[in-house]
Design a protein that fits this description.
This protein is α/β, with parallel strands linked by helices and about 325 residues long. Helix content is about 30%, strand content about 15%. The chain is built from ten helices and twelve strands. Helix 6 (about 165-170) links the parallel strand 5 and strand 6 (about 180-185). It is globular, with a radius of gyration of 19 Å.
């Protein structure tokens, strides 16, 4: 379907949990309280929303968290979402810690893409950033996933950790068919307090260090990344520049939080509570029509652009762990 500005909305990110097995300092440091389980959508409720979304024109789903792989049965959910008429792709974003353990299940379920969040290859720095994470487990999962036919991408938040840090990450794509994408830090939640790289400067540095780098016009997915090809690399480099490369005019996404709140823009609290509709005592047919109506109305009200460049206008007060990655 189209929103009020005429943009086609065909992509929904679905958070299935606010729990995580890491404690990244800019996302979910120690001390954050997780939601009671009864406040989290059941898989059946997620499937019901996804079916309504497909009726409205959503074609691509991304499973996120928290860390989605800490929720038992995640791969089974992927398989059931794949069976919904109209859904073309189901992908997942994970921190990679459990990926090697469940990769075969995800492949059997028909997963269409795997994104791994990884901000550094320095094991000590990784442990510090993630509150004690073991980078060895992540690299094992990455290695196994990269050997499959499923597209694999690295998502690295552009923290200001020095040129050597982003260069090491980028080199993961030299000998592997893995795209490495750098994501500008969103100025909401704990992320507001972290120094981050300006992607305009990062791109200049990349061009200087990798002469011959050129735009890659091939389609790599359904998100806003701008890709570049580096001579001699099997994978591509990507930049997701929400702040310094504002892509709101082509935004095609909405987000579903683990609590069932449909968000249309990260910057604003605006959206609609779908869980309240799901748990009414209507018939399934009545509930489905109410869900579609609520989703359609929310999407039509989707803001034309974010206001991250004007922090005083941001109305979203939740941390990313509650919104969904």
């Amino acid at each position: 379907m189209r929103d009020g500005t005429g943009r086609t909305i065909d992509y929904m990110r679905i958070s299935i949990t606010d729990r995580c097995n890491l404690r990244c300092r800019y996302c979910m440091p120690e001390g954050i309280q997780c939601l009671p389980r009864e406040e989290i959508l059941t898989y059946r409720e997620i499937e019901e929303i996804a079916a309504c979304a497909a009726d409205l024109g959503i074609r691509h789903l991304k499973i996120t968290g928290g860390e989605p792989l800490v929720r038992r049965g995640c791969a089974g959910l992927v398989g059931r979402l794949k069976e919904i008429p109209g859904i073309e792709t189901v992908t997942i974003t994970t921190n990679g810690v459990l990926l090697a353990d469940v990769l075969d299940e995800l492949l059997a379920a028909g997963i269409d893409g795997i994104n791994i969040s990884l901000d550094t290859l320095n094991s000590d720095r990784y442990r510090e950033l993630t509150g004690g994470g073991d980078i060895g487990r992540v690299l094992t999962g990455l290695g196994r996933a990269a050997e499959t036919e499923v597209p694999v991408k690295i998502n690295a938040v552009s923290l200001d950790l020095g040129a050597e840090n982003w260069r090491q990450l980028l080199e993961l794509g030299r000998d592997r068919k893995v795209d490495v994408r750098f994501i500008e830090m969103m100025p909401i939640g704990y992320g507001k307090n972290f120094p981050a790289l300006d992607h305009r400067s990062l791109l200049e540095e990349m061009r200087r260090i990798y002469p011959g780098m050129e735009r890659d016009e091939r389609r790599h997915g359904f998100g806003p990344a701008v890709y570049y090809r580096i001579p001699g690399f099997l994978g591509s480099a990507g930049l997701i520049s929400a702040i310094h490369g504002k892509f709101c005019s082509s935004c095609n996404r909405v987000r579903l939080t683990a609590q069932g709140y449909l968000k249309t823009c990260l910057c604003y609290h605006d959206g609609t509570d779908l869980r309240e509709i799901l748990r009414r005592e209507e018939t399934e047919e009545e509930r489905r029509e109410l869900l579609k109506q609520a989703m359609e109305e929310a999407i039509r009200r989707k803001p034309g652009a974010h206001c991250f460049e004007r922090p005083e206008a941001i109305t979203e007060g939740e941390n990313m762990i509650r919104i969904g990655g």
